[in-house]
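For reproducibility, we list the full input for the adenosine-5'-triphosphate complex.
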Amino acid sequence: MNLIDTVNDVDARHLTKGTVISASGVSKEFDSGTTAVLDVDLDIADGDFVAIVGPSGCGKSTLLRMAAGLEAPTAGSIALSTDSVGVIFQEPTLLGWRSVQANVELCAELARLPKSQRRSRAAVAIDAVGLGGFEKQLPRMLSGGMKMRVSLARMLAKEPAVMLLDEPFGALDEMTRLEMQNELLRLYTARRFTALFITHSMSEAVFLANRVVVMSPRPGRIAADIRIDFAYPREPELRYDPRFTAHVAAISETLRGTE
Ligand SMILES: Nc1ncnc2c1ncn2[C@@H]1O[C@H](COP(=O)(O)OP(=O)(O)OP(=O)(O)O)[C@@H](O)[C@H]1O
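The corresponding predicted structure, in tokenized form, follows.
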């Protein structure tokens, strides 16, 4: 399932107007007996950028996988108002024998879009992630950051209304990570998709999101839902703003309080 970005077909009933993702009383107990997520209620409005932070193993990925339709809740329900969904994981999961261009076109190809449309969407997406000129390269010729850009472009080429991102920058070095955050924010500012973004980094969450949801240790529940009211576009210098630092400190404090 990790090989390509996926489209889900999760039940879209029970949604109130303007809500794009709605989780109601969602729990997940695996067959092993582990309860990963417990009684989560979460409504995400159209155009919201929601980051989820929480201790390792608290059920963040499980929640995202349920939103993507890759796992079913064992209690409650999770609904999306659209089937225009792109999912991106920590590993870029590119096909090694396909060029950058062919990797970016993959989802459009699977969706049987005509060649001309595939080409034009891929060209726009490749340009948007700053990979113009690398179209013919194979993944093994690219750095980790470039591979993640290809992965991002592949998702953008689908032009999804909802993006589910599971620690997409977690494996990158600090410099590349900050660059990718700037890039993603630029795209978000231009396109205003709805995003659910999982991260371990509190500063990444505050920089990107307009809401940061803090989860408790397993079984993961929502411990806090914090609004980040910096306007978009956000400039890299925001990271040095005392209000930014205060948000990060408050989230850190909240996380400590859940232990
Ligand atoms: N398929 C599975 N079968 C059994 N247990 C699982 C499965 N997937 C996840 N778990 C367990 O559920 C819990 C939550 O896992 P999950 O990956 O959702 O946490 P996470 O918050 O994303 O962790 P991390 O921050 O380390 O990536 C963990 O204890 C994990 O071992």
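Residues 95 and 103 are 7 Å apart (CA to CA). The pocket of adenosine-5'-triphosphate is lined by residues 30, 32, 34, 36, 54, 56-62, 218 (CB under 6 Å). Both points were considered when choosing residues for closer inspection.
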